[in-house]
């Protein structure tokens, strides 16, 4: 189900594109994250404790510094979409996984800057663990100083901007270049920072990835629908 993690750093760009896949997402952390033991409510801290995930160690997140609304939680949610649907409310900065009996699992997310957001519906056609990343040509053109040096791609790992998992959004069988993915920058959750993708804490994208199979439907709400589902 997942592509190979280890990618030779000097592969030609076209080979990297085939193995890793272009992405509209951005950016890399300048320093590897520090390992922290989460503080605050022990029941919440356990959800965001350090994780050993294969060869990678995911740092813990200090929940005492998080907006309580961004902590993963089950909420009352009214929607016409069936259980298993992912509903993204980019204006409220939440992602909902629709459950049975009027419930949903809610995750705090970071979203795209104005003008770069994904709109409409898509399907998850691919899932990846510790995915590689290649900036799009538009990203390189828009900010060559930042993305030009990364044109050959970046292998998966804790320093990669796609984080621990990525869900690839397709429309009509074609890659939209938008992803729902993890992040190595937990402070960006709840903000408009990306080049188009939906980002979750690494702990949360691992949880979401476990719950949704390939083929799952994703709906990104418009401003007129924002905030209407949660009771």
From TrEMBL:
Residues 84-221 form the L,D-TPase catalytic domain. The keyword Endoplasmic reticulum does not apply. GO terms for molecular function: acyltransferase activity. Pathway: Cell wall biogenesis; peptidoglycan biosynthesis. Residues 1-26 form the signal peptide. Its EC number is 2.3.2.-. Pfam families: YkuD. Keywords: Acyltransferase, Cell shape, Cell wall biogenesis/degradation, Glycosyltransferase, Hydrolase, Peptidoglycan synthesis, Signal, Transferase. The active site is at 181 (proton donor/acceptor), 197 (nucleophile). It comes from the Bacteria. Belongs to the YkuD family. This is L,D-transpeptidase. It comes from Neorhizobium phenanthreniclasticum.
